[in-house]
Design brief:
The structure is a homodimer of 408-residue chains.
Chain A: E1 6-11, H1 27-30, H2 34-41, E2 43-49, E3 56-57, H3 59-66, H4 71-74, H5 79-86, E4 95-104, E5 110-112, H6 122-129, E6 132-134, E7 137-143, E8 148-154, H7 184-202, H8 205-212, E9 220-228, H9 235-239, E10 243-246, H10 250-258, H11 277-290, E11 293-298, H12 300-307, H13 310-330, E12 336-340, E13 357-362, E14 385-388, H14 392-399
Parallel strand pairs in A: 1-11, 1-12, 2-14, 10-11
Antiparallel strand pairs in A: 2-13, 4-5, 4-8, 4-9, 6-7, 7-8, 12-13
Helix pairs in contact in A: 2-13, 3-10, 5-10, 11-13, 12-13
C-alpha cells in the first residue's frame, strides 16, 4: 500500500464544557458545523488526553505531545520555542529566553512591562542589541509581535537553570540567579547582557523619538522562561516525513520549526480571531502537494475561551468549519485528515483545563464507526476510544500506511 | 475558576457480573436506584480497571490506587494499613503486622486461630503486651475488632521481609524467618516478642476468666502480613487537598489515615451490612463544609458479594441509593461527586474479581454524556471511556479545577 499524506488540523482550545446559556451543550455541540460533522461521519472518532488524565496542557507541551514527543522528556521551558518562533535558528547547547521590551526608570524599576504596548520600531531596537559579544558567549536577540522578543545565549558551558530577570510586576528588575552551580556562568552572562543592552536602548533613536512623543521608551528587555534546546530528532528523521505547518502564533511556529517543519508565512494568518480562514485553507492545500504531513493550527478558539465568550466561540467553530470545507473538498480520499484540539479552554474557566479533547480522522485507511458529529461527547463513543496525545501521530501514521512493523 | 470540592463515594465490592436469578442482569442493573441513575444522567460515566486489566484488586491496593498512589510502588504488605486502621501512629522505618489473638496448647500448637472468636476483653490484653522493650526495638500492640489486632516494631535497622508466625491453620506456630539477610534482626525480634507476649497472656486475668468459663484463652498473638511504612506524600502536600473520610472498616480507615485524611468515628457506621446509611450521609455533608475532598466507603456490598447473596446485594444497592439521595440533595452543583467501586465482588464468585467497575461523575465542570443509568454495562458507553484507578483522582481534580498546568 502506498503511503498516504496526512493533514492534522488542531483547533487551539476549541474543546469546552457544558455552557448554561447553550442548554448545557458545549459550543461544539451547539454550533452548525457540517464539514466537521462530515469528517466524523466519514471516519473514526475518539477522545484524547493530550498529556494525560488530569494534566492541564500548555500550548507548548500539548503540541510536542501531538507531534509524538514526550514533553516530560523534551520540554525545558518556553524560551527555546519562542526563539524558534521568531526565527532564531537554535542550536544544541543554546539557552533561550522569552523577553518583553519594557520601560524602566533610572533606578531600574519597571514602570511599564510592555513599554506602552509598543507596536512598531522593535526591529531596529532588536538589531541594535543582537550579536553582542559577552564574556564567553554571544547574545542573539530578535523581536516578536508587539512588545515581545526572544534572547538566545550561545557559547560553551551554558545551563538553563537560572531565575528570571523579569519581576513579573512593576518593581525593580531582578538579578538572575543560578538554580544549580552549573548555571552560574549563564546567570552572570544574562545579567551582563541586560545591563549592556539597556545602555544601548537608552540612547537609541527609536526611543529618543518615543520620549519626544511622550511615549514610554522600550529601554530594557526582561528575559524569562529560560530553556535549553534539547536534541529533538526531527520528524523527517524519525518518521521520514517531509512536513510543513500553517500557523499564525509565534509559539506554535516555534514548536513546528523545532520538530523540523517548514513554516511559511501566510498572508492574513494572524493567530488572532481576525485570521483569514480562506488564506489558511489555500495555504494548507498548497503545502499538501509538496509534503507528506501538513499541520494546521487555528488559535482563535483558545482566545474565545480565555475571554469567556461563548458567542465568539460559536462563531469561530463556524468559521473553522468553512475553512475545513474548503480543505476537504479539494483533497482526495487517500489523504488522511485529522481534526482535534491541543487542549480545552472552557469559556466557563477562561483558562486551559484538563478535560479530554475530541478527535476525528477520515481518509486513507480510516475505519468508519458511525459517529455522526464532531464534539466532546459524540467523539467519546467513537471506535478510537480514549487515547493519549503522544499516540496520535503513530495512530495517523498507521492509518496512512506509514507505520513500521515490529517483528516478522 | 475557583477550585471546587470533591466527594468520592466508593461502594466496596458492589460491582458484579450477570446473575442467573436476575435474568442475567447484575444487581446494579436489576435494582431500583434513582439517585445513582440521576448522578449518571447529570454527568459523565466510564469504567475503571482499579489496578489494571486482569488484576484482582485487594481492598488495600485498590484504595491506594483510587487515591492516586501506585500500589506497585507504595504497598509492601497489609500490616501497616491495619496498624494505622486500629490507630497506631506509624512512622517511617516501622515494621507492622496484622495479628490474630489465638489459642495455643502447651506445645505451641494452634487449636483456635480466633480464640473462640473472642469479642470482648482484647483491649486489656493488648495493653498488657504493648510497649514491651525488646533487644533494640519497642513493640506496640493494639486490638482491632473481634479477635484482630496489629503489632508494630519500632527501632533502627528493621526490615519487613520476614515470614509469618501465623501458621494459617491449626498446627504449631512458625518461627519467623528472614527472607533477606537485612531482615535477620526483625525476624529475631518478632519471635522474641511472640514468646514474651505469650507468657504475659497466659496468666492475664481476662484469660484466667475465660478458662474458668470454658472458653478458649487468647493466649498468643499470630503476626502475619509484615509491611514497612513507606514514605507516602500525603494528599494535602501532593495536591493541596484538605481531606477527610467516612469509613467503618479498619483497613479502609488505615489507608485513609496513611494518605493524611482525617477519619472521624461516625456513630453507627459499622462497616457491616447493618451500617447506618443516614448517619454516613450526614457525616459526609458535615465534612464537606470543612474539607476540599471527602471520601466515603460503604463496605456492605462486598459482604453480600462474599456471601454470594444477590438478594442482599440488591437491598444494599437500594440502601446506598437512599444515602446518595440524601447527600446529593444537599450539595450544590459546584461540588464534584464521583460514584464508583474499589473492585467487583460478584455473588457468583464470592471473592473479588478483576472485572472493571462502573464510574460516574457529576457536578463542577463534568461533561454530560447522555448515559442514563449507573451500572457496569451502561457506564462502559460513557464519555470517560476506560480509565485506570490511578487516573481517577487526577481526573476528578481536573473536573474540579484543581489540576496543575504543565507548560505555558
Amino acid at each position: 500500500m502506498a503511503p498516504k499524506k496526512i493533514v492534522l488540523i488542531v483547533c487551539d482550545g476549541l474543546s469546552d464544557r457544558p455552557v448554561k446559556e447553550l442548554g448545557m451543550k458545549t459550543p461544539l455541540q451547539a454550533a452548525k458545523k457540517p464539514a466537521m460533522d462530515a469528517l466524523a461521519r466519514n471516519g473514526i472518532s475518539g477522545t484524547m488526553d493530550v498529556i494525560g488524565p488530569g494534566i492541564i496542557p500548555g500550548s507548548d507541551t500539548a503540541h510536542l505531545a501531538l507531534f509524538g514527543y514526550d514533553p516530560h522528556k523534551v520540554y525545558s521551558g518556553r524560551g527555546p520555542i519562542e526563539a524558534m518562533g521568531v526565527g532564531i535558528d537554535m542550536r544544541k547547547g543554546d539557552v533561550a529566553f522569552r523577553c518583553n521590551f519594557a520601560t524602566v526608570d533610572k533606578s531600574m524599576k519597571v514602570i511599564d512591562r510592555r513599554a506602552g504596548r509598543i507596536r512598531s520600531g522593535t526591529e531596529p531596537l532588536a538589531n541594535a542589541i543582537s550579536g553582542l559579544k559577552l564574556d564567553g558567549a554571544t547574545a542573539l536577540f530578535k523581536q516578536g509581535s508587539e512588545h515581545r522578543g526572544a534572547l538566545v545565549l550561545r557559547g560553551p558551558g551554558l545551563d538553563h537553570r537560572v531565575t528570571d530577570v523579569d519581576p513579573h510586576r512593576e518593581s525593580r528588575i531582578l538579578e538572575s540567579k543560578p538554580l544549580v552551580p552549573e548555571a552560574e556562568k549563564t546567570a552572570k552572562l544574562l545579567n551582563e547582557y541586560v545591563r549592556r543592552s539597556a545602555r544601548i536602548l537608552a540612547t537609541h533613536p527609536v526611543n529618543l523619538d518615543r520620549v519626544r512623543q511622550g511615549l514610554p521608551p522600550a529601554n530594557i528587555v526582561l528575559p524569562r522562561g529560560a530553556g535549553s534546546m534539547n536534541d529533538l530528532e526531527p520528524l523527517s528523521e524519525r518518521y521520514g516525513l517531509k512536513c510543513a505547518a500553517v500557523a499564525g502564533v509565534t509559539l506554535v511556529k516555534g514548536i513546528c520549526r523545532m520538530v523540523g517543519m517548514e513554516v511559511p508565512d501566510v498572508q492574513g494568518a494572524t493567530g488572532g480571531t481576525d485570521t483569514d480562514y480562506v488564506a489558511k485553507a489555500k495555504a494548507t492545500l498548497r503545502l499538501v502537494d509538496a509534503n507528506d504531513f501538513v499541520f494546521v493550527n487555528i488559535k482563535a478558539g483558545d482566545i474565545a475561551g480565555h475571554d469567556g465568550d461563548f458567542r465568539m466561540k460559536l462563531r469561530i467553530v463556524e468559521s473553522i468549519d468553512v475553512m475545513l470545507e474548503l480543505i476537504l473538498k479539494d483533497l482526495n480520499e487517500d489523504v488522511v485528515v485529522a481534526l482535534t484540539c491541543d487542549h480545552s479552554t472552557p469559556v466557563s474557566v477562561k483558562e486551559h483545563s484538563a478535560d479530554p479533547v475530541p478527535l476525528a480522522v477520515c481518509g486513507g485507511g480510516a475505519r468508519i464507526d458511525g459517529i455522526k458529529e464532531f464534539d466532546e461527547v459524540s467523539a467519546a463513543s467513537g471506535a478510537l476510544g480514549r487515547i493519549r496525545g503522544m499516540d496520535l501521530l503513530p495512530t495517523l501514521l498507521g492509518i496512512a500506511d506509514r507505520a513500521t512493523k515490529f517483528g516478522a
